[in-house]
Amino acid sequence: MKLTDVKGDQVINCKTLGENIRICRMLDEQGFKMIxxxxxxxxxxxxxxxxxxxxxxxxxxxxTVNFYLDCGYTVINSTKITGEPSQIETLVAETLPVTAAxxxxxxAETLPVTAAxxxxxxAETLPVTAAxxxxxxAETLPAAPxxxxxxxxYGGQDDPYEVIKVxxxxxxxxxxxxxxxxxxxxxxxxxxxxxEDLKKAAWYLAHEIAKY
Length: 212
Fold this sequence. Notes:
Layout: E1 10-13, H1 17-29, H2 46-49, E2 53-56, E3 61-64, H3 65-70, E4 74-77, H4 87-95, H5 100-106, H6 115-121, H7 130-136, H8 163-170, H9 174-185, H10 194-209
Parallel strand pairs: 1-4
Antiparallel strand pairs: 1-2, 2-3
Helix pairs in contact: 9-10
């Protein structure tokens, strides 16, 4: 997957410092900018959230995994993004000892073929089971609600006023974005926690007001 394939409702999660450096370097090389028009390479926000750090490269914003999941985003592991490894990762890889698994892989051609491998190679000659038929036709069954990607308590993907769309359209930051999020889902995600969601919204709004 390339950086240019990342959609507006997707964010990239960097779980390690090495991955953060690699992704930020690629973003700079391909002309992506932070919302402040700053360079990703000079960004040090990963140190605040460590492995929870996510980048919304289409808007130039950043946040945590939990924040973006709550807002209906799809979180993509940075290792799925293709590109050259960072210099740090290359240097580290060169200093690591060769493992037994790597030795076995390098010399796999000298090992005897197992019965399991033979069965796999000739699987096409085996009769199709009922379970396989059900899997092949699973697309005809109605999809279960997805609690991660465009959950219904935030409006759902087909709703033009889905929370994440409103937050992006209005250019809201972390505090105001959370304020809108908790107001929108109050009584929908969990009816018994309607008051709790509204209190959370009030907390984030007060936090934003306190900046001024």
